[in-house]
Amino acid sequence: MFTAEFLVPIIIEIVTGAASAVFVGNVVPPLSFGPWKNAAIGAIGGLVLTWVTARTPGLEQFVEDVEDAGAAAVDGVGSLSPELLLGIGVAGLLGGALLVTILGLLRNRARI
In angstroms, rounded to a whole number, what is the distance separating the alpha carbons of residues 94 and 107? Predict the structure, then answer.
């Protein structure tokens, strides 16, 4: 049921989102929730932004293999192209950094 074509992109989204959120927390300490919470927030952000990107017209080509979807269904073999993996990684990085930044700013704003 869970194939490499399904699991590898999800793992990339989670890892890149977590890494970018931990990085943002280390570079800008007022936005940090702590390394473990930053990693969890970043993983969620990476998944969410990649999901949103896949449903945005004009951007879905970067995180979905649109052209080969029909061929993959016919052949029964999926493909993980380098362009697809790079697009998923970038979306995960941006999603993790954005979510931890937004939540950190909201938390700091609520304290004032």
Answer: 20
Cα 53 from Cα 28, distance rounded (Å): 26
Tokens matching residue 81: 């192209």
Rg of the Cα trace of the chain? 16
d(C-alpha 31, C-alpha 70), whole Å: 44
Q: What is the spatial distance between Cα 32 and Cα 38, in angstroms, rounded to a whole number?
A: 7
List, for residues 37-68, the tens digit of each pLDDT value.
Answer: 999 999 999 999 999 999 999 888 888 875 55
Helix axes 4-27, 35-54, angle to 10 degrees: 130
DSSP H helices in the chain: 4-27, 35-54, 60-63, 69-75, 82-111
What's this model's pTM, rounded to 2 decimal places? 0.84
Residue 1 within a domain = no
Residue span of the structural domain in which 47 resides = 12-68+76-107
